[in-house]
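USER: Study each token:
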Amino acid sequence: MRIPRIYTPVALEAGQTIELDDNAAQHVGRVLRMQPGQALELFNGDGRDFPATIAEAGKRRVTATLGEPLGNTSESSLRIVLGQTLSKGDRMDYAIQKSVEMGVSAIVPLVTEHCDVRLKGDREEKRLRHWQGVAVSAAEQCGRAVVPTIEPVMTLPQWFDYSASLDARLVLHHRTRQSLTTLARPGSVALMIGPEGGLSADEIAAAEQAGFLATALGPRVLRTETAPVAAMALCQWLWGDFNAAD
């Protein structure tokens, strides 16, 4: 049986016994029905995994004793920052979940011209907390010990400024013939993904003026939640996980 991995946002130190927060305790105690003496793996986002043993397990209270920390080698050598236009339903959740699995470093929700979602005030804060939870769950599942940050919602000018320091800045655009394979190998990449209706011509022009390169993944139009996964897989193949030693 695979040892469950649990994120806990507290300082971790070998030898200490900690109490899991409510969400983690409910998952371990009620969903997994784990018992004292069983093994867990805990992490807090600092890049290390802590093997742990359950000391106490109830429906509302779970404690675990930590062993010596282990290094985690799941992080990519390529820093990828995703600018993902807001979308309805579970599309945004899917894009975040799969991007975390693909090794994204940070995700920036974007508001664009054809975006059909508008978030303000408490609603925005609630969605950001939800998306950060999606990122946490994805990190637990895929073996990462670092949880990518979900940044506040940005306009395109804000996104252009935020991503200015990255080596390569790419906006996906199916009407261009520019391919990723023609680019020099970067150490960091910004990926800009439009909404279901696509980015407008003015937005593409503004991105190019800000230093983004319009890039195509192929002759077909991808959905807004599929595009970042496909793009990151190619970036990791060319410059990251699968070519780190080149």
Q: What stands out?
A: DSSP finds six helices and twelve strands in the chain. The two ends are 36 Å apart (CA to CA).
